[in-house]
Structure formats: C-alpha cells, structure tokens
C-alpha cells in the first residue's frame, strides 16, 4: 500500500491503542459480570506462570517500545507451575500491565518479578509512574472506582482492578498495592501453592 510517513505511523498507533482500549473495556465488563453472576467456572490446570508472564510481556512490548518504556523481567530459572485458571491469571496480568503502561511516563520502566517462596508464589509488577495517593488506595479494588488523578490520564471503566481482585480471590490469594504519589506503584500478588 506504499510507504507510511511518520505522521501516518503515529495516527495508526493511536488508532490501534484506542481500539485496544475499547475492546479491553468491553472484555472487562463481560468478565466482571461472569464473576459476579457465578457464570464463570474456574478451569484450574497445572500452568507455567513464567510462560503466561512472558506472553503478556511480549504482547505489550511494541507499545512500550513506541512509548520509550523499558520492560524488565526478573524470573527464577526453574519453571513455576501452579494449579490455576490460566485465562483468568492472564486477564489479571494483562490488566495490571495495561495500567502500568497507562501511568508510566515516556522514558520510564515497568518491571515484573516472579518468585517461588515454597508455600506461595509472588508476582510483582512495578512501574515508575505517578504513584497513587494513600487516600485513593483505599478504594482501588472497588467496583467502578477511579481516582481523580487516574481519570486525567486515560478513560476507563474502573473495573480493571476490581476484576483483578475477583480473580485473585477466586484463587484464594491476595493482591496489594504499594505506592506513594510521585514514587511509582507496585502491585503484589500472592498465590498459595497448596490452594
């Protein structure tokens, strides 16, 4: 179709990001409905979490590169297998990485760490973004909750983190946010190996 100018490339990236955001919002609404109405049956199977994380990072890599955001992965060498619903865990990680991309400025970094601590698996997603105030953190995992500072960055439904919490709860795990304004954000997920 011919060469694409720099300006056309920028517009195409914006269209892609806009379409992805819209699709993401629709998918989140459907998943939240399924969890709330017990339509979703968790399909647990032995799953290599490292493979899911690598796939999620590969998916956002082009967007991160376009925004000059460094992606850092810190995995243990051996495979980390856990009996989980792989689609639900992937959805949770995609939501968290998508948020990290939205709120990390150009030239920033996002790191993802996976640890096997015997009785639990810990996943951490850390960004160098604007951070979240302690007041806003109280409401992060509530349905339709969006902080004032978050709304000015990007549109959303306020369902992403609520869905993440539902998924972690369904796996009998824990998700916490560690953040301060101007100091980036860490989301830590703990999944029990015995659950």
Beta percentage is: 15-25%
Radius of gyration: 17 Å
The helix/strand series, from N terminus to C terminus, equals: HEHEEHEEHHHEE
Overall, the morphology is globular
The name CATH uses for the topology is Heat Shock Protein 90
Polypeptide structure, described:
44% of the residues lie in helices and 23% in strands. It is of the alpha+beta class and 195 residues long. It has a single domain, classed as Heat Shock Protein 90, CATH 3.30.565.10. Helix 1 (6-36) crosses helix 6 (160-170). The longest helix has 31 residues, at 6-36. It is globular, with a radius of gyration of 17 Å. The relative contact order is 0.15. The mean pLDDT is 82.
Secondary-structure map:
Layout: H1 6-36, E1 45-48, H2 49-66, E2 70-75, E3 81-84, H3 86-103, E4 109-116, E5 120-127, H4 134-137, H5 148-151, H6 160-170, E6 174-179, E7 185-192
Parallel strand pairs: 2-4
Antiparallel strand pairs: 1-3, 4-5, 5-7, 6-7
Which features would summarize this protein structure in a list?
single chain, 195 residues, alpha+beta, Heat Shock Protein 90, five-stranded mixed β-sheet, two-stranded antiparallel sheet, 6 helices
